[in-house]
Amino acid sequence: MAKHDKSGLGKSASGFKSPTSLWIGGALTSIFVVAALVSFLWTPYSVEALNIGAKLQAPSGTHLFGTDHFGRDIFSMIMVGARVSIAVAIVAVGIGILVGVPLGLLAASRQNSFIDDLVMRSNDLVFAFPSLLIAILITAIFGTSALNAIIAIGIFNIPVFARVTRGSALPIWTLDFILAARVAGKSGLRISLEHILPNILNILIVQGTIQFSLGILAEAGLSYVGLGAQPPTPSWGRMLADSQTMISFAPHLAIFPGVAIIATVLGLNLMGDGLRDLLDPKLRRVR
Questions:
Q1: What is the pTM (predicted TM-score) of this model?
Q2: Structural domain boundaries enclosing 230
Q3: pLDDT in tens, 6-26
């Protein structure tokens, strides 16, 4: 009599979970990426044109998401706001990767040395100052702008990628093929680039998606307190801030930018979860 293979069923179930989260996350993220790209060429209405006569209109066929207190079309503002949020997150995560990953590789190659201690203690120092406080310090000196928000979020991403890179690289430095590379005369830099980095790339990709979602949240938070993109450029965070005094009689002002933030962050987190299952050798199923 044939027996049910419980382990096979488990693999099938887990194998279904990973593509599902990846596809759902990719679909949600793609919606806002496409909206951001289309906003460069077209929006239903101008986001800078004021129409006081049409202010605070509820969602309708004319204005899909309604209008704000200046009569601006909220759907158009969501599209342009996606462009701002995604651009800030991409550049901020890029700063974290370009600076944090080399620092993490350097610290791992010189573990238990002065350089390792210097890199990690510097990371601890940056972690002591949240991105909001860093943004306040930067804007106090240079003024409020989206660029300063990018710098603040990017600085906070550096120690994140440095720690993840170092923590992932340290176990690999103890493996036999790394010892063989050392015996062959390869330098620490060459080993880091040729052997360490390719083996931790999957971890960095997953971390990048997580930091990307956190970057969008951070940009929205900074804009909410007035430290992000400045008017007339729409921003999801500032749209929420503007709506808080009118939420009782015009809830659509808060609902749509709030849903945009939640859906984008959820999509990126689902993508990160799916990529982790897909790229992590320990979780990869035999097909």
A1: 0.84
A2: 22-42+73-279
A3: 444 334 334 444 568 889 999
